[in-house]
Write a structure and sequence with these properties.
single chain, mainly alpha, 7 helices, 68% helix
């Protein structure tokens, strides 16, 4: 199967698939994870001024929902963590941006850091990606990549 070929069992008319595929951005023939992360950037832009506790509750709920969405969509696709499933990238970017300072450059830095850790997959990101299965596995490697990204972003904030 080509990496960007969407199985016939997946339909954007199905609300579960629509969300798991990042409102269709995961269907991009090139860099679906990166394109899907842009949905996270958009969501962050509109939620960045929420009180921190509300922002954190939003992320937790999106993460928990993502376990189910991504797991169901992967089962329907009959492929573990199909490249079109990008809900995990959306939530990962939002996690990265927790308590980030205002400014487009911080949004861009968070984007670059998250994509870097998600693509390179240093340990334990790679461990989670290879070991954990189902929706939790799909979500967890991106969550760990987001924690690394968040830490690096906050170090940058402190250093600059």
């Amino acid at each position: 199967m080509k990496r960007n070929k969407i199985p016939e069992s997946i339909s954007l008319a199905n609300p579960v698939h629509l969300l798991a595929l990042g409102f269709g951005t995961g269907c991009s023939p090139i860099m679906p994870g990166t394109i899907g992360t842009l949905v996270g950037v958009l969501i962050y832009y509109f939620t960045r001024n929420l009180p921190l506790w509300i922002y954190l509750v939003m992320i937790i709920l999106m993460f928990l929902l993502g376990i189910w969405l991504c797991g169901k969509t992967a089962r329907d696709a009959k492929v573990h963590d199909h490249s079109a499933i990008v809900w995990d990238e959306i939530v990962g970017y939002l996690m990265t941006m927790t308590a980030a300072p205002a400014g487009w450059y911080w949004m861009a830095a968070g984007f670059v850091l998250f994509r870097l850790f998600d693509i390179v997959k240093p340990w334990p990101v790679s461990w989670a990606d290879k070991t954990l299965k189902g929706g939790l596995g799909i979500m967890m490697d991106d969550a760990i990549a987001a924690i690394f990204s968040l830490l690096f972003l906050q170090i940058m904030v402190y250093m600059l």
